[in-house]
Design goal:
single chain; six-stranded mixed sheet; 2 domains; 9 helices; alpha/beta; about 375 residues; Purple Acid Phosphatase, chain A, domain 2; elongated; about 40% helix
Length: about 375
């Protein structure tokens, strides 16, 4: 694992070097101050690497969490510093080419980059650590039986229980979900970011999720990074139904509703038994029933819609989590967030109920989704 992370460490060091070249020469002409800025960048690169590696190299969980916290906060600040430095360099490349070099203007811009990065990090931290709000969405389903009208699903996704998200945070999410009084709860992957040994206690609150027909869970890519088989066993112990290319039939007011779930789009890389298969998930399902698919990644919809699903619920994207990474989502996924139509199937993508990596959200707040089926 450590060898696989070496390229990442090199990239982190090079990106810090880029920030140094783009900002430090214009911040001060005092050599001692310049050395201080260089030292801070070196410390930042080390802290960020330690934050990423902490759970692999430190056995003490409390110490590992503290180092991860510091590293992730640093990563949040660094991400804004890097993007703003890049923008500043692009602007001044053209400015200097056509108008000429102006040291005072470069200095003002460089100081502004630091101030804006700090401001974005603080606001992003407050947004990330605030409890997810309930977002209400109506899904108009063609040929929805009267008996299923106003059937309610509470969706949570991408909580990422790990170094910075623990028991109390998860417990507050559960309390808010329970207040919806939903007919069922859908957990669309990336619940955890770590091993069962380290996090089993911190996911315990999801056993308190309450709804008429129970809670249904599908694996996300981070469950595979964290030991999928062990987590499948653990989540089942919490009275959560784990759907592995399978379905369950809910009979609501004497009408059938199929709740299917598939393994993650990338699951086949972790063994043939984990290959995602939306067709298999419907095997022996009532053919005329309304069919809902839980699939972690939105791109599963491209294949799933061919098998007659009416609605797919996904997560994975976090809505981009913070600017400008939301623009890169479409390089991998067909959609970023919200409600979309894929031919005859609806697709809803949650912005996520927690966050991944840096405790930072800008413009894309976390959500607990309250979905209501209505007749089209």
């Amino acid at each position: 694992m450590h060898k696989k992370l070496i390229p990442l460490i090199i990239v982190i060091a090079l990106l810090h070097f880029y920030i140094g070249v783009g900002l430090i020469p214009y911040l001060s002409q005092d050599n001692s101050v310049t050395m201080l800025y260089i030292a801070l960048l070196i410390i930042s690169s080390i802290v960020m690497c330690l934050g990423i590696l902490a759970r692999f190299i430190i056995q003490n969980n409390k110490l590992s969490d503290i180092i991860s916290w510091i590293g992730m906060l640093d990563m949040g600040l660094f991400s804004s510093l890097f993007v703003l430095t890049l923008l500043k360099q692009l602007i001044f490349f053209f400015y200097n080419s056509f108008i000429g070099f102006n040291y005072n203007l470069e200095r003002t811009a460089s100081l502004s980059v630091i101030v804006l990065a700090l401001f974005a990090t603080i606001i992003g931290f407050i947004n990330a650590r605030s409890l997810a709000k309930i977002v209400k969405i109506s899904i108009p389903i063609t040929n929805l039986p009267k008996e299923l009208e106003n059937f309610t699903i509470a969706q949570i996704s991408d909580i990422h229980v790990g170094p910075t998200i623990k028991y109390k945070y998860v417990s507050k999410i559960v309390d808010r979900v329970n207040a919806i009084n939903a007919d069922m709860v859908a957990i669309t992957g990336d619940l955890v970011d770590g091993s069962v040994e380290a996090l089993s206690f911190h996911v315990q609150p999801i056993s308190r999720l309450k709804s008429t027909y129970g809670s249904f869970f599908v694996l996300g890519n981070h469950e595979y990074y964290s030991g999928a088989d062990a987590w499948i066993t653990q989540i089942k112990k919490l009275d959560i139904v784990v759907l592995l290319n399978q379905h369950k039939v809910i009979k609501h007011n004497n009408a059938n509703l199929v709740i299917a779930g598939i393994t993650d789009y990338s699951g086949e890389h972790f063994g043939d038994k984990h290959k995602s298969d939306p067709k298999l998930a419907l095997a022996l399902a009532p053919p005329d029933a309304i069919k809902i698919l839980l699939a972690h990644q939105p791109r599963s919809a491209i294949i799933a819609e061919k098998f007659g699903y009416d609605l797919q619920l996904s997560g994975h994207t976090h809505g981009g989590q913070f600017w400008p990474w939301n623009f890169f989502v479409k390089t991998q996924q067909p959609f970023n967030t919200g409600l979309h139509k894929v031919n005859n199937m609806w697709l809803y993508i949650s912005r996520g109920t927690g966050y991944w990596g840096p405790p930072k959200r800008l413009g894309k707040s976390a959500e607990i989704t309250q979905l209501c089926l209505v007749r089209a």
